[in-house]
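One chain is below:
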Amino acid sequence: MSSDRPDGPHSLGKLLGNVAADIQDLVRGEVRLARSELDQKLDRVIMAAIWLIGGALVAFAGLVVILQGVAAALALVLPTWAASMIVGILIVVVGAILARSGLSMLSLKTLTPTRMASSLQKDVNVVKEHIR
């Protein structure tokens, strides 16, 4: 009669020690994966914040130009104010596009750590199979 264990029978204590070590390695790996994924998500949030701030600054500059155009229109009633208004409106549109791009980068769907969740689910399934 042959044994399926090539290195002979193990004691229950040694088997439990091996399981504990494997679980420890698994947890460490999951923590590393979570940290790596969260670092990537944090980089995305920082980039989105930069775009939001940039968009807000450009829109503010556009508002200043629009207000200068209104002031010129009221003061002189010359075509110069129309040019100022057109430039100001274009700058506000560009700022709005930049800000919207930044907001879309901050959606919760793009910030969810999906790889970590998937990996944890696989680990749970493997543990369940081995417990049966």
